[in-house]
Design brief:
Length: 80
């Protein structure tokens, strides 16, 4: 695999993952009560905990995207 192909792979991985991240945020913001009831109906989780868990997940996912895809893409752009 050439450097330019790796750049394209990391770029598209970053774009696709950011789209999934935005979709996750939109799904949680628009029908929030419905998603909460669907996800935590039988569980003993409050709405505040549900929001906190999702916010933590979004932050971890975003940091993972940056560290696993965006940083290698930028490094390959600098090297290439």
């Amino acid at each position: 695999m050439s450097v330019s192909q790796l750049q394209q792979v990391f770029l598209w991985c970053t774009v696709i993952n950011y789209c999934l991240l935005i979709l996750w945020w939109v799904i949680l913001r628009l029908p929030q009560k419905w998603i909460y009831n669907l996800s935590c109906g039988p569980l003993q989780v409050s709405e505040a905990q549900f929001d906190s868990y999702n916010l933590t997940g979004i932050i971890i996912y975003k940091l993972s995207i940056v560290m696993l895809f965006l940083v290698p893409y930028i490094a390959l752009r600098i090297v290439g």
